[in-house]
């Protein structure tokens, strides 16, 4: 094994181009488990810890450009206002020790259906900034990023430099089912974001299909129902029948399996419950914010 | 490969390190510092917790090469580390813990029941006084994590303590005495100032 230690992003891209089989290592919280248990013996490890830019973020007009290696702890502490869904999801990852090392770039690299960043990114709207020495930078829409179980759209010579996550324009929530609050890989998870500016709702489902997915049919139904009922303007509570149908469509958007963490039917059911709850929580907070701004006006 | 890094305030060098080796392995097997424990090697138990540039991490999940040039504090150096922090830095210029001292470090002193006769960090003393140690396997990780919590947050709520220690498993003592120990250390710390 060789340990490659690029001191800059350009050096890292050059190393990845020269050794496309090199395994990048950021926080190491996925890679080291595989090496410790001899599940993986890469020829090259490509250490990204020396590249300072990867742990930085910039808050722009529309989105946050989040460096691939920004640890979850930093996201929770610093980006709660801009990226509430991702901050909530980050807080559910493992333990403080893991959150101090692991980040979204590694979560995307692993692309596990259970990765907690994914539902939040899908719900918020995001693009993955991938780069190679040969072809430069491209932005991969998050909807196109997950291509199969633990597979993603990266080419062998590419690295993730950052993720551009849309800044929240409304309430966001993240919900996860597991046996305790810490150190739990999701049985299933659900992210939801209200986007009042475009009058849309976006979702993300974790651990209930081969890849993280959006519940698109449920989103379309809800968008139409909210529009039709004038909900965005009148700020009424969501009709129970609308919430119920949304929940059913979210369950229907799953394609889960039975495994040690839960059965397929349990996952489908739990996703429906989380969909209804996160919709209620976010909608109540949207209504609260509307009332507050009307009161102030 | 060779790894040069700082361990408990002193520069160290580890040789013949395999590229896929963990920092935990280097500490235990190459430097002879068995304080950080190896229980799961998969980040689940926290018994290998050390500070890496001040940040608590599972040393089993840090590749040895990633520690190059960085600063590691292990449980063997915790007493000196805490002392130096309390004194506001290193006045003598010879702080930290030598490898030899660290290798021989014991909580025993003249009385293994009370820890008397050894220099303990406040959190170590509190663990002994509160009876938060049984087999002791989880203790090093809990000490490093608790010490960092109290450094960051001198008056933690119970929820803060639970959260900070949520990555550390103990299979014998139960968590109540461990909570007591952290509360005790926090209370003593606030009396001092
Ligand atoms: C005990 C434990 C509990 C866990 N619990 C959770 C949990 O609750 N939720 C959850 O989502 N995850 C969990 N994980 C998994 C892991 O912590 C996350 O997936 C984390 O986001 C990985 O980030 P990392 O920086 O440590 O990745 P690494 O291990 O460094 O890398 C992961 C993968 O991504 C690739 N990679 C890393 N950076 C880049 C880059 N810039 N460009 C291209 N590829 C890259 C690597 O080659 C590797 O394939 C847990 C892990 C452990 C050990
Ligand atoms: S040995 Fe590292 S967390 Fe268990
Ligand atoms: S004292 Fe035995 S594991 Fe905690």
From TrEMBL, chain A:
Q: FAD-binding PCMH-type domain: which residues?
A: 1-170
Q: Which Pfam families match?
A: CO_deh_flav_C (PF03450), FAD_binding_5 (PF00941)
Tell me a Gene Ontology molecular-function term this record carries: oxidoreductase activity
Q: Which UniProt keywords apply?
A: FAD, Flavoprotein, Oxidoreductase
The answer to whether the entry has keyword Metal-binding is no
Q: Which InterPro entries match?
A: CO_DH_flav_C, CO_DH_flav_C_dom_sf, Diverse_Substr_Oxidored, FAD-bd_PCMH, FAD-bd_PCMH-like_sf, FAD-bd_PCMH_sub1, FAD-bd_PCMH_sub2, Mopterin_DH_FAD-bd
Superkingdom to which the source organism belongs = Bacteria
Among PROSITE patterns, the record links this protein to: FAD_PCMH
This one is known as Carbon monoxide dehydrogenase
The organism that produces this protein has a lineage beginning with: Bacteria, Bacillati, Actinomycetota, Actinomycetes, Kitasatosporales
Automatic annotation (TrEMBL), chain B:
Q: Which GO terms describe its molecular function?
A: 2 iron, 2 sulfur cluster binding; metal ion binding; oxidoreductase activity
Q: Which domain of life is it from?
A: Bacteria
Q: Does the keyword Cell membrane apply?
A: no
Is this entry keyworded Lipid biosynthesis? no
Q: What is this protein called?
A: Oxidoreductase
What is one Pfam family matched by this protein?
Fer2
Q: What is the lineage of its organism?
A: Bacteria, Bacillati, Actinomycetota, Actinomycetes, Kitasatosporales
Using the record's annotation, list all stretches that form the 2Fe-2S ferredoxin-type domain. 1-78
Keyword annotations: 2Fe-2S, Iron, Iron-sulfur, Metal-binding, Oxidoreductase
């Amino acid at each position: 094994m060789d340990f490659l230690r690029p001191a800059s992003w350009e050096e890292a891209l050059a190393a990845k181009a020269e050794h496309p089989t090199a395994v990048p290592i950021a926080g190491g919280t996925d890679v080291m488990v595989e090496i410790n248990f001899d599940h993986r013996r890469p020829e090259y490890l490509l250490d990204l810890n020396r590249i300072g830019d990867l742990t930085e973020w910039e808050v722009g007009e529309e989105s946050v450009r989040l460096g691939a290696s920004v640890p979850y702890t930093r996201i929770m502490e610093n980006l709660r206002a801009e990226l509430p869904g991702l901050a909530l999801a980050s807080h559910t990852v493992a333990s403080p020790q893991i959150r101090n090392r692991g980040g979204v770039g590694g979560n995307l690299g692993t692309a596990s259906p259970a990765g907690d960043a994914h539902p939040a990114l899908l719900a918020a709207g995001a693009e993955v900034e991938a780069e190679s020495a040969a072809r430069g930078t491209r932005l991969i829409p998050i909807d196109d990023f997950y291509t199969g179980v633990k597979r993603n759209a990266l080419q062998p010579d590419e690295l993730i430099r950052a993720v551009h996550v849309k800044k929240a324009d409304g309430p966001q929530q993240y919900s996860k089912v597991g046996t305790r609050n810490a150190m739990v890989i999701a049985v299933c998870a659900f992210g939801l974001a209200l986007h009042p500016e475009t009058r849309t709702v976006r979702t993300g489902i974790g651990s209930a299909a081969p890849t993280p997915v959006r519940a698109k049919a449920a989103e379309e139904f809800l968008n139409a129902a909210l529009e039709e009922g004038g909900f965005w303007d009148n700020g009424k509570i969501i009709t129970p029948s609308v919430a119920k149908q949304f929940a059913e469509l979210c369950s229907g958007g799953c394609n889960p399996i039975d495994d040690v963490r839960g059965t397929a039917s349990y996952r489908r059911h739990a996703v429906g419950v989380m969909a209804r709850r996160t919709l209620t929580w976010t909608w109540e907070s949207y209504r609260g914010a509307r009332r507050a701004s009307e009161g102030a006006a | 490969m060779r790894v040069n890094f700082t361990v408990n305030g002193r520069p160290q060098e580890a040789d013949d390190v395999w590229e896929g080796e963990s920092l935990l392995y280097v500490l235990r097997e190459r430097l002879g510092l068995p304080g950080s424990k190896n229980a799961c090697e998969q980040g689940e138990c926290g018994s290998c917790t050390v500070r890496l540039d001040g940040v608590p991490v599972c040393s089993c999940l840090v590749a040895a090469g990633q520690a190059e040039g960085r600063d590691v504090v292990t449980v063997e150096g915790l007493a000196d580390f805490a002392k130096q922090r309390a004194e506001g830095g290193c006045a003598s210029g010879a702080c930290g813990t030598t490898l030899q001292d660290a290798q021989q470090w014991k909580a025993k002193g003249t009385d293994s029941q009370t820890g008397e006769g050894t220099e303990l960090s406040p959190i170590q003393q509190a663990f002994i006084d509160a009876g938060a140690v049984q087999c002791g396997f989880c203790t090093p990780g809990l000490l490093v994590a608790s010490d960092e919590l109290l450094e960051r947050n001198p008056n933690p709520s119970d929820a803060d303590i639970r959260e900070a220690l949520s990555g550390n498993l103990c299979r014998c003592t139960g968590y109540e005495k461990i909570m007591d120990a952290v509360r005790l250390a926090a209370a003593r710390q606030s009396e001092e100032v």
